[in-house]
Amino acid sequence: MKNTRNALRRSRLGTLAILMTFVAFLSSCKKDDDNPSAQADSIADLIVARTNLSILEAAITKAGMLDAYKQPNLTVFAPSDSAFQAAGITDANALAAFTADQLRAMLQYSALAAPTLSSAIPTESNKAVQTSYSINGARLNAYLTKNNSGIYYNGAKVVQADIQGSNGVMHIINRIVMPPTGDGTLVGVVAGNPNLSLLRIAALKVAASDPTLQAALTGSATAFTIFAPTNSAFQALGYDSTKIAATPVASLSALLANHIVTDRRFVTDLPATVTALSGKPLTITTAGDSTTVKSAGIATAARVTGANYAASNGVIHVVNKVLLP
């Protein structure tokens, strides 16, 4: 009888211990639910935690946008430290060359207001997606490409996809992506680059009497790609603002038409041969990070020194030679 009572007492104690453990477990779960630190990290947290995103973190901090990366429903295309360094921004100290507004524009242009996993990106070239950046109240598009080589955002390759946070998803890219400048059109982007001032003078002179070129520079019906010679490239042929002013419009028109091709073509979209508006072929060679363009009128190919400058109606690649027909 005594043994029976002891057995019952032990049984009740065991049951009580199990119940107390279960209650403690439920209490722990409740605390985790109430404690934000126990939740999944936000995209802001993920950026801060990653050592290969330190320059991006510094840019976000200088732009005063850390809280923006905690907002819901984001897709962020995050340039790695290597991406910044490829653009000459060697470390966080180099961001001193940029204003907070310039950094804010870059960051907004690299973010979408909807979470987009890589599996949701269709296999196509340059699908327009609305960014968080706007000019005159209108949101600007960026362009996504998905093909056998990978996923590209305005020509920047996604090197690590689908890093999920509590408020969206982040994809790490291998190049920084800058928004269009000026009014956002091709001519606006050219005007915003002081190293292309001679091209701007020539283009504006021709556009005044050439509807086709004017449409390419400022229109929205069709996208174009421009290979934009630098001031040094024009000067190497003896062109300055005076000579451009004295050159007949027909001659300038034929010259500029040899630098423009139809369609929006980031460097990763360029085929081996494209046909310029002049009707003549341009030969494209890409090896690693180097891209060159060869026209019939030059002995050695021009080198692309600045690629993938996006515009609302196309894209610009800066070249170090004039592409003579």
Outline the secondary-structure elements.
Elements: H1 2-34, H2 43-49, H3 54-63, E1 74-79, H4 81-86, H5 100-109, E2 111-112, E3 127-135, E4 138-147, E5 150-153, E6 156-165, E7 168-173, H6 186-191, H7 197-207, H8 211-218, E8 224-229, H9 231-236, H10 241-246, H11 249-257, E9 260-262, E10 273-275, E11 281-287, E12 290-294, E13 302-311, E14 314-319
Parallel strand pairs: 1-7, 8-14
Antiparallel strand pairs: 1-2, 3-4, 4-5, 5-6, 6-7, 8-9, 10-11, 11-12, 12-13, 13-14
Helix pairs in contact: 3-5, 7-8, 7-11
Structure description:
The structure is a single chain. The protein is an alpha+beta fold. It has 2 domains: 43-173, FAS1 domain, CATH 2.30.180.10; 186-319, FAS1 domain. Helices cover 34% and strands 27% of the residues. It has 11 helices and 14 strands. The chain has helices spanning 2-34, 43-49, 54-63, 81-86, 100-109, 186-191, 197-207, 211-218, 231-236, 241-246, 249-257, and strands spanning 74-79, 111-112, 127-135, 138-147, 150-153, 156-165, 168-173, 224-229, 260-262, 273-275, 281-287, 290-294, 302-311, 314-319. The strands form 2 sheets. A 7-stranded mixed sheet has the order 2-1-7-6-5-4-3. The protein has a 7-stranded mixed sheet with strand order 9-8-14-13-12-11-10. A hairpin with a 2-residue loop joins strand 4 and strand 5. Helix 7 crosses helix 11 (249-257).
